[in-house]
Amino acid sequence: MVLLGLRFTLFKNFPKRAKTFTERVHQGIYHGKGYMYGHVSTFSEKKTKRVWKPNVVKKKYYSQILEQTMRFEFSTHALRCIDKAGGFDNYIMNTKDKWLHSRTAIELKKLMLEVLKCKEQGMPMSQIRKEVFPQPKVSKHVHIPKTYTTRFYFDWRGPRKQVVYC
């Protein structure tokens, strides 16, 4: 527990099972940052629960390995770490999965490793995009219109059949 001035108290030491990361953390690159929980104390020492959210910005980075611009939500701590690592690609490749933490960043790291292996074999980038990059999902929902052959048909609704005229 850390006192932040007179009014704010921050709980830092949570057991591992109590530490929660929202789904939003897995969609961006936050470098292990997440929600922090604590309480605000009033003058009468009543305590009100409080949540501190990470400082997040949307930013585009160009990946030289993937040869395309990537847009993610980054925490400001992650932006400083990217500058310190010497660029976006160096940050993703050299940072441990423990600190990347988000599923998006870990999948991006795996994709970059596959692309580097293909580039070492001498494959052109157009062929790499077809083989390695994930394909867009195709919708399985297809509208099939009903065809009616007779003048009326039986439609099952509840405990009895009802005749519907066309």
Automatic annotation (TrEMBL):
Keywords on record: Ribonucleoprotein, Ribosomal protein
One Pfam entry name: Ribosomal_L28
SUPFAM superfamilies cross-referenced by the UniProt entry: L28p-like
Top-rank lineage group of the source organism: Eukaryota
Coiled coil: none
Record carries keyword Zinc: no
Family stated for the protein in its record: Belongs to the bacterial ribosomal protein bL28 family.
Stated name of the protein: Large ribosomal subunit protein bL28m
Organism the protein comes from: Porites lobata
Lineage of origin: Eukaryota, Metazoa, Cnidaria, Anthozoa, Hexacorallia
